[in-house]
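histidine kinase
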Amino acid sequence: MSYRTNLFSKMVILILIMLIPVVLLYWYSNHKTTAVLRTELNRSNSNQLEFFQNQVNTHIELLSSWPNLLIHDPDIASFRRIFAESRYFDLDAINLVKRIQNKLSIQESSSNWETKLYLYSPSLGRVISERDARTYDKQALKESLISGWDVHKIEDGQNDRFKFSWITVSPYGIENPAENAETIIKLEFDSDNIRDMLDKFKGDGRHDPFYFREGTGVIYNRTSDRTLTNQLIKELSSHTLQDVENRTIVIGNEPYMVNSVKSSTTGWYLVDYMPLSDILKPIHQSNQLFYSAMICLLLMSCIAAYLLYVQVQVPVKQLIRGFQRLKQEDYSVRIEPKGRNEFSFLSERFNSMVEKIQQLFEHVYLEQIHVREARLKQLQSQINPHFFYNCFSFITSMAKLKRVDAVVAMSHNLSRYYRYTTRQERDVVPLSEEIEFVTNYLEIQRMRMERIHYTLDLPEDMLRIEVPPLIVQPLVENAVIHGIEADAEAGEIRVSGEQRDGTLFLIVEDDGQGMTQEEREAMLIKLAGTMDQEMGCGLWNVNQRLQLRYGGKGGIELAESELGGIRVTLSWPVEQQPLLKDKE
């Protein structure tokens, strides 16, 4: 079932399929709403900037009309004539100057802007202001005579100021007015007047308005963030500005909505900006609330799906796993009923069914055990004739050679062997008895071949372990026959044992001719199959007995010995008792 989509996964996927269209629809609606809001805000901001710009332009245009009005004033006309007849002041001229100064003062006071009016007489080289009548520098006047508004920057510490001036000449269109004009009227005002209006405009809810003209400078409001304003001006200057423009500029990962309107009177741009995060903050809060609600809804739906999964899917999966284990012949499987519902009833019926099946199979399994016991007895009986044949052949040879001592020794060892092999009723024997039996066999073979030397290296506590009878002798016999007898210079046999990780290892080695890797692999394949005449029955019987007793946990390994011949290792678990003994 691991590869299948369970009920919980299906329900979660279904919930996601239901929620995703809602989220997408909300996102689309929110995207459209944000776009409309930004468009309307840009339009509203542009309209407010245009209105403020018109106010400033109207005021400036009103100021620029003053010189045209004053140039036609009778006193100023009389002043022009008097100065044309005489270069010296008399009492009437002084009174006329006073009247002109009063009119200049009244005109300056008619506006809430701080302004200055100057009356120049090029013929006398005099200039009259509200409080003064003095000479002036004609060259400076000549340089300032330009068409339209003239703007000069005034250095004032950290606050840059600008002087705006407007000049009217009478008569109009005269050449070299600084020398030939009858009257020149000059109007001046400081950029602080515009700064005052910016402060008021900002106080009405604008973010941070300022005036800007490329190549001239910037008129800040008094609480302006000049660092940010300068960065915005740098970005604005990188592209040609339109008369009315809306633009989004990113400064330090923060987007700003920037609106600008150009003055048709002065050529200056009125610019205002505000962070988009401030504008979209309510929308973002609404988004967070909506997405939080969606997450909560998803979590609650997942919890509901999980409860349904626990109440339905888990019991079903337990039943499926129970049937799978039952299919694998594991009749110890049981399902723990939980609660009192339909699935607990099914779990109880399943347990009852498996228990009855287990009882039935136990009876059948006992019959199989008896058959296996008979098979073990048959395998042991196959070993005995093979050993006897070898022994009698040796006695016959010694008798022909008149080796009475060898015959007696063989008879003595054979009698001890006979006592050991006749105890067929035992399924296991102490390892010490099995080693004593192997010693008798080696002593007999040593009588035949004096070059045979053997070593028995087994721990004392290991000799008390019970092992299947006739389990080591066939290995020693193979070492003698196939290892030592086949090599005239060989004669060393070593029997050793060890116990580790709950497994017993019995090792038989010789210094005979040994086997190649390919021969060892071929031998292991034959041991797993049926017995043939070329292989012999000794080693095959041992392997079969280990497999019958211990299953896949017991067996034989073949390797190259450090003595030079073959190394045969028997292994089986020592904590697990033989199967026949358990059932007895």
